[in-house]
Amino acid sequence: MVAFEFIAIEVAYASGNTTFLRKLKVPVGTTLRGAIERARLLDEHPEIDLVRYKVGVFGKLMTLETLVVAGDRVEVYCPLLRDPKERRRRRAAARAG
What is the span of the domain harbouring residue 49? Predict the structure, then answer.
């Protein structure tokens, strides 16, 4: 019989009025993609497209194939609707002109 070692992690997502935070235990060697799937995030939020949305751990961008380690918080980031730098430029131009 093969024994698997499990580690505790969290999967988080927030968008508008929606928040998702699930604690779970996954086998050592699980990828960010695997953690997201095990948390069933995509079942509850079918609008998430992992091709367009970025993922990371504690605010640092990672790939879907990155392995999670104990204590990680896997985060799924919504695409920005507007670039914050561009918004600041437009506000400054409106005030100046």
Answer: 6-96
Kindly state the DSSP code that residue 82 receives in the 8-state scheme: S
CA gap 33, 56 in Å, rounded: 11
Residue 25, in any domain of the structure: yes
| C-alpha dihedral (40, 41, 43, 47), degrees to nearest 10 | -160
- The rounded mean pLDDT for the chain is 91
Q: Tell me the average pLDDT across 31-59.
A: 96
Q: Annotate 77-96 with b (16+ C-beta within 10 A) or e (fewer).
A: eeeeeeeeeeeeeeeeeeee
Residue 1 forms part of a structural domain: no
* CATH number for position 52: 3.10.20.30
Q: Are 59 and 32 in contact (CB under 8 A)?
A: no
**What predicted TM-score, i.e. pTM, was given to this entire model?**
0.80
| Domain count within the chain | 1
65 domain-assigned: yes
